[in-house]
Amino acid sequence: MMGTLMSTLIVEALTTTSGVLRAEEFVEQAQVTNWPARLAWTALVLGVIALVLWAMRRGWQARIRRQADVPAPHAPPAEPTADALPGLYLGTSVSGDWLDRIAAHGLGVRSRAFVDWSEEGVAIHRQGAPSLLIPAADLLGVRADSGVAATVRSKDSVVVVTWQLGERVVDTGFRADDSAGHRTVLDGLMATFPREARA
Question: The whole model's pTM is what?
Answer without folding.
Answer: 0.65
